[in-house]
């Protein structure tokens, strides 16, 4: 399976700096939400599976949350990310 990683890249005067790297393998890109607010980057990944077995329905739910503080002097609109 493809290994998915969440890269938080900072772009300061064309000098790319890596703020955080997060492994979100097993999550679909649409299940990952990234917000930048109040000087922090928040990453939320949620995955839910439902399957029917001979004993009934089984649910599998997993979630990852991470909060990263931005370095001083960095504007929130300078933050970019890729999945």
TrEMBL record:
Function of the protein: Component of the outer dense fibers (ODF) of spermatozoa. ODF are filamentous structures located on the outside of the axoneme in the midpiece and principal piece of the mammalian sperm tail and may help to maintain the passive elastic structures and elastic recoil of the sperm tail.
Domain SHSP: residue ranges: 1-83
Annotated keywords: Cell projection, Cilium, Developmental protein, Differentiation, Flagellum, Spermatogenesis
UniProt similarity note: Belongs to the small heat shock protein (HSP20) family.
Species of origin: Balaeniceps rex (Shoebill)
Database matches in SUPFAM superfamilies: HSP20-like chaperones
Pfam families per UniProt: HSP20
Entry annotated with the keyword Hydrolase: no
PANTHER family: OUTER DENSE FIBER PROTEIN 1
InterPro entries: A-crystallin/Hsp20_dom, HSP20-like_chaperone, ODFP
GO terms under cellular component: centrosome; motile cilium; polymeric cytoskeletal fiber
Any one of the GO BP annotations: spermatogenesis
Protein name as catalogued: Outer dense fiber protein 1
Subcellular location: Cell projection, Cilium, Flagellum; Cytoplasm, Cytoskeleton, Microtubule organizing center, Centrosome
Main location class: other
